[in-house]
Amino acid sequence: MHISLTPELEAGIKQRVASGYYNNASEVIRDALRFWESNETLVQYMKLEVLKKRLAIGAGQAEQANFVDQSVSDIISEAKNA
Hints:
mainly alpha, elongated
């Protein structure tokens, strides 16, 4: 596999190898990808928690007959942009 990096990213990888913590650039990239994957899981979890909280608020408002004049599509679009 061949990848292109910006000079800044390449310098960062070389710096990490030079620090002695990593033996080569491949180790740096693998570690970064593992971090990215674990971070993605955390981000997805956080989004789910936010959604649960928003649903709880909406359920409470519905129980009080407090409704908004928006379509479901509008609400979904607004949530995606939040």
